[in-house]
Model the fold of this input.
Amino acid sequence: MNLLLALLRLGLGGTFLYAAVTKLPDMAAFAENVANYRLVPPSLVPAVAAVVIGIEISLGALLLAGRLARGAALVATGILAVFTAGLSQALLRGIDLRCGCFGGTENATWLTVLRDAGMLAVALVLLVRGPGRLRERAGVTRDQPRDAPAATEG
Amino acid sequence: MRTLAEAAIIVGAGALLGLAGNAASPRPATLAHPVHSAAESGTGMCAVPGAAPAARAPRIQVEEAKGLCDACKAGFADARGASDFAAGHVTNAVHLPPAGHPAEAVAIAALRAYPMVIVYDGDYTCALADEVAHRLVREGLPDVRVLEGAWPAWVTAGGAGTSGFCPSCHDPAEVHR
Done:
């Protein structure tokens, strides 16, 4: 179970990091994508876009490193819930928009919602079950307890 | 509680990291400038929502438009969205989306220096250029055309693009006085 959790964590972290890196070269375009969701006041859009990418980088790095992994899983759960809700409301309102998920021009569809929901489920699992580890420590055979020190995670 | 504290640290650090990353980005989001959705600015689609279809404005072929650009005999107005305009536009074109922008009076004033204004948008089938062309006519500009084939045709034809001034003139206002 620990190995599976670790693999999920690495997958989620890698995805967050990739998503951030693809957006960094054109933050202005990502800000336009954020504006098109029509969830954020226009004056806050540039700052929100920058903060989202910064959080994605942090989540990616921390999940990959296995540091502060519970907190990262909590933030990932929150941000993915917002992404999923934002995409869903846009599609339900008939707004034709680009996803903005990985830079580029990918259109938002219900498949995009499904992908985000899948990532949300992974984040929830990591939040509830812990970050796992790739190699079992000697004498440790059970899942890591929820209140285990962060320094031993990963 | 510990998890919540970790989450707060991550959000705070992420926010600072994001602002730093934005500052370092080749195309940063300008924090002081509001960003409106395409639907609100009328630049993300080929027609303004709720507006009646624009009548077809007079067209001009790309080759003729290129000659006028090189000779500084025409001003160009770009009706596309801000990001498309920033990514590349006809040399010396002004940005003039259908919904306008804070500096549109200056842009229109610059276009008055030319005997002809050529408007273009991003796609062969778009009606944004027609919207802008009719608006410019209402503003009193005497000869307003829409570029046949739009921006893709201009690029394909090797028209002067990106930024700066037309190749043969550096101060169009001075040339046309």
